[in-house]
C-alpha cells in the first residue's frame, strides 16, 4: 500500500525511496502472513489507514501529481482572492531638534492585561520539551551549506523533521490528540446518563413548582383563618346566636306550661342555662358595639 501524488514525512511511511511513499506502519500489511491472520477486507484496511492519517496528518514535503498541484493552486487563489496585497507604508518617526528620535506611543503594542480576558479559561499545561540551544546536526555544516539549507524550503523542512526535538514535539502532540479522542469517547458514553439526569431534574423542577403553588394556596387559607375576625360579622353571628338561645329558653317555658307544670327545679335549671347564654351573648355584643363607638 502506497501514498501516491505527494512526498510526505510520517512515522507510518517509508520515505527512503524517492519514487514511492510506502505505508509500513499499519500492522496488518507488514507481511503476507499478518494480512492473512488479520482477516480484513481491503476496504476496511484502507479505511483504517485513512482514519489514522486524518487523526495524525503527515507533513507534506512535495506534491508530485500535477492534478493535485493545480487543485492546491486554485484553492490558494480562492482563499487569497484576486486582490493584490499592498504594503503598508513605513512610518518614519519625527525627530526633534537634537536629532533624537521621539517615541510614538501609538506604535507600541497593547498591554497584555488589556487584551487578555480575565474570565477566559486558562490554557491547559502541556509538558513541552525544552528547545535546545545547540543542534549537533549543524556543527559540521559550512556557511554555504547552511545558506543552501535555509534557501531551500523543502530541504529545510526535511532537515527539521529529522531533528530529535521535532520527534519529541510530534510525540507530545500525538499523545494529546489521543487523550482528546479518549475524553471525547468518554463524554459520548456518558451522554445518555447526562440526558437522563437532565430529564430527572426537569421533572423535579415541575414537581417543586406544583407543590409550591399548592403551598401558596394553603398559606392564603391559613392567613384567612388565623386573621382577626371582622367585628361586624361577629356582631351578626352573636345576634343570631343570642336570638337562638332566647327562643330555646322560651320553648322550654312553653313546654313546661303545656305539660301542666312538672318538676320546678329541673325546669329552672334548663331555663336559666339558656337564658344565661342569651344574656352572655347580648353582653358581648354590647362590649363590641361600645368598642366600635370609641374607635
UniProtKB/TrEMBL annotation:
Primary localisation category: other
Occurrences of domain VPS37 C-terminal (ranges): 212-295
UniProt key word Transit peptide: no
Subcellular location: Endosome
GO biological process, alphabetically ordered: protein targeting to membrane; protein targeting to vacuole; ubiquitin-dependent protein catabolic process via the multivesicular body sorting pathway
Pfam families (UniProt xref): Mod_r
Annotated Gene Ontology cellular component terms: ESCRT I complex
Protein name: VPS37 C-terminal domain-containing protein
Compositionally biased residues, Low complexity: 83-107
Residues covered by region (Disordered): 73-131
Keyword set includes Nucleus: no
Keywords, ordered alphabetically: Endosome, Protein transport, Transport
InterPro entries listed in its UniProt record: Helix_hairpin_bin_sf, Mod_r
Similarity-based family: Belongs to the VPS37 family.
Polar residues bias spans: 73-82
